Amino acid sequence: QVQLVESGGGLVQAGRSLRLSCAASGSIYSINAMGWYRQTPATQRELVATISTRSGSANYADSVKGRFIVSRDRAKNTVSLQMNSLKPEDTAVYYCYARDGSNTYWGQGTQVTVSS
To answer: Stretch 55-59: mean pLDDT, rounded?
Structure first.
């Protein structure tokens, strides 16, 4: 079992930055990837960024490339999403996820609202 606890969401103005964090606990050793999805009432949950917990290799949605950075802290068992140059269209509920060989685990979601 893996448990994920998120923090860092909030209300920010366009152009500002926000950092989301996700702490994993439980069967941490089995996790091979972590990252972030986001969802609005009008859209399905979409991938924002993913990172290999083994290599640190990261991938991003085209809409956030060059603005967002995903990273992991192996000692603290956390993954973070540094969101820079935020746009109103980034407004969504952001969900942390973790994957092992068999399962996908989800955080509770944290609201990010970007005002224009």
So the answer is: 96
